[in-house]
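Quick start: read one record
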Amino acid sequence: MLQFFRNAAKGVTGKVIVAVIVVAFAFFGAESIVGIVNSSDPIEVNGEGISDVQVQRLVQERQQQLIQQLGENATPELLNSSFIRQSVVNALVNEEIQRQASVDLDLAVSEEEVNQNILTIGAFQSNGRFDEEAFRRYIAINGFTPTTFRSQLSSQIRLEQMQAGLVRSAFELERDVERSAALESQRREVTYRRYNAEDFLDQVDVTEQDIQAYYEANSDQFLNPEQVQVRYVVLNQSDLIPDMVVTESDIESQYNRYVAEAESDTLREVSHILFAEGDDPMAAAEAAQARLDAGESFADLAEELSDDPGSSLDGGFLGELSEGLYVDEFYEAGQQLQTVGDVSDPVQTEFGVHLIRLETLEQADVEPLESVRDDLEQAVRERKAREEFGLLETEMADIAFQSDRIEEVAETFNTAVQTSDWINRNSTSGIAASASFVTAAFSESVVDKNLISDVVRLENGGLAVMQLEAYEPEQVQPLDAVRARIVDIVTNEQATELAEQAATDDLEQVRSAGVVTDERWASPTVIDRDNSDLPSSLVQFSFELPRPAADGLTVERYTAGETVYLVAVLSVTEGEVSDDVRQSVGNYLAQRTGQADYQSFFNALRTSADVRISGALSQ
């Protein structure tokens, strides 16, 4: 098969698939943004610019979220709608307004706090540890440098500090807490009677007129979805692996990569003492180094002398030494330490002067070449197959574009044409398990123009092209095909209506009598809001009813699906308010008040902000 692939080669191009992962931040909604500006930045907030790169990055994030949430229903029209762009503009403006407010409040974030946040972000971890390669890959894909990413993360932490500070400072008056806690602890004596729709089925008479009326009023319930069948060709990378040629030089190169990766996997954890204040930080560092040489404890000196409040109380401990997390001078000095307990000479950085101590050194074991030869050979085959396969995507697209029939593509690549089952837009089995395949199958070029599709990358990494075999538009099923289903629906509806009418008749009798005497009512029981013996919806409804008058009752009808209840509240007693309930209610009320306070705070900032956007984004 490989030779056929190579014979088909006509050129080399590339496609870059951008995967966007951005640390989530919740923005408050705001009114539409007004104001037009023409400048290098498409958005300005109080004179501070928001770049087009930031806009595009968040647009891509929102598009990815929609694809994950909606799957094949995330159409190109939706993904490229003005609504998404406008929501992104609002979000970025809201974030910038809050960022400026956090700066005005002089909120600060230490380098150590930023480092710890980076180390705990799941996207940067592999096997439970920080993966420097994943970190660098992420920031590169998203257009960051280590410095700009750290700056954005620091800004986000400040926003969270500001939000938390305002929300957590809220409080509630004691009388409000007591009143709410008393309601939460209230107990009610209730009884109920159940009316099941199935008990009224023998009274139901569904006529042909009923069936026809329901069919016409609810035709959208009986739609046969749009369906398509396609003939398709699939190429898989795994088919190339056996044909890949591996030389001794390839294995040696792969072994060198293996050794380099193992060495880069070395774990170094460090502590430091920072000298950033005073007239001569270098002299202070040298004096501390002399005390260390004299036998004093590094941790004790860090607590006494370090100007880094984030680590000084922990003996100066910073955690893993990872490239990109620390400035180059610091990282390189830490890399030079080869024995646990070694302390560097004073290191000058933009933050001050550091003494760095190596706390942990765990080096990966490197196996001899012969022990890993088979694995290396397989890795080389897979890499070469991956490279070869990368070229095929363009070549397959070229051949498909030049061909009138899918069979010509199959012949060129010496593979078979397959025919799919019927596929609708919600199909998820077989070849339709790849949402991209389904999207292509319903594309205009395939359905309307009977052309061969663009190349589709499947979830398993394979490549596919397809051509229409058959198509059926969305259409309402004939009445005879859904008659039995309609009879069941209408029967249950009418039975439920009869149950509701019976319950309504009895409701009036109970209200007139002022008591419940019928043995078909459940025995009275005392419940609280956490009662698990009754259906939760019934418990909630019982506590929504008014308190009964003395020597009386409150009774109402309640429908849950095909079951109707009469619910009577016989008495209400105030439960004992425990300290735990009081604390829980107080926390809830304070949090609710804090969130409202923050919303008011933000609304005031938003109203007074000078927001200007370019003409293209204002549409």
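The longest helix spans residues 479-513.
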